[in-house]
Amino acid sequence: MNFQRVGAIVLRQFYLIRSSTTRVFPLFIWVAVDIILWGFLTRYLNSVSNAGFNFVPALLGAVLLWDFFIRIMQGVTMAFFEDVWSRNFINIFSTPISIYEYVTGLVTSSIATSTVGIIVMFFLAIVIFGLSFFSYGIVIIPILLILFMFGIALGVAASALVLRMGPAAEWFIWPIPAIVSPFVGVLYPISILPGWMQLVSKILPPSYVFEAMRAVVEGGQVSWMSLLLSVILAVVYILAACLFFTHTYKHAVRTGLIARYSAESLG
Asked: Among 8, 82, 260, 261, whose CB has the most other CB atoms within 10 angstroms?
């Protein structure tokens, strides 16, 4: 692995963002709106509820963690889409860069761009709505790690899907977090789902994350074995996504499909 080539992919994203304010705005505005809306909703629920239950760590915390996952996933796909929209694949892959260096560059770019949104999220949640991450205890570390790994896995898999199906397939990518969210119980326990949805949730790492978060908020015991299983699942998803991307890339090169990114209309 040549880290200078990885750095070149990251540097390209930096130059793109630096030269365009329209690319800076979406890095934080969506997450800021989400946190503000859910923050005031949880305050309202706290004021009308007589149960003495604090909705801030339960609901606002869940929304913040889910937004964290979405930022990571979209960080990878947005870096990839920049090359799709600019029809830059032929230029990139005519250089000595390997597919592994390219994917590593996308992931590194995702970490850098997502950090902006994550800082805004944490600032609003902590300063304005008083969400304390210390209340989650040490379990917050594996929670963030699992969501980070699953976001990377879905981002790489989504990029491979677009590489395989063509630029217009990007419309399949945007709804992925919304499609996954009902199965992982972001805002409710997995136990209220129908049986078939619970079966699906068992193979999705975030479902264990949000169950652990609710256990902490309700004063229960966190299942560390479930979190370990979730980490293993996330690693499997990352390996599968990388294999999928590599196989798709080799197929696109072998069959000439990659040339469509220089000829096909993006509409």
From this structure: 261
Q: What is the DSSP string of 199-233?
A: HHHTT-HHHHHHHHHHHHHTT----HHHHHHHHHH
What's the pTM?
Answer: 0.85
- pLDDT at residue 267 is higher than 50: no
Residue of 220, 228, 9, 27 whose CA lies nearest to 115: 27
Mean residue pLDDT of the chain comes to 84
Cβ-proximal residues to 189 (8 Å cutoff; 6+ apart), any chain: 211, 214
| 8 Å CB contact between 9 and 109 | yes
Q: Could you give the CA distance from residue 158 to residue 76 in angstroms, rounded to a whole number? A: 9
Asked if 123 and 64 count as a contact pair (C-beta separation under 8 A), the reply is no
Q: What is the DSSP string of 59-74?
A: IIHHHHHHHHHHHHHH
Dmax over CA atoms of the chain, in Å, equals 65
Q: What is the model's pLDDT at position 233?
A: 94
User: Would you tell me how many other CB atoms lie within 10 Å of the CB of residue 29?
Assistant: 12
Q: Which residues are within 8 A (CB) of 130 and not within 5 positions of it... i.e. 6 or more apart?
A: 56
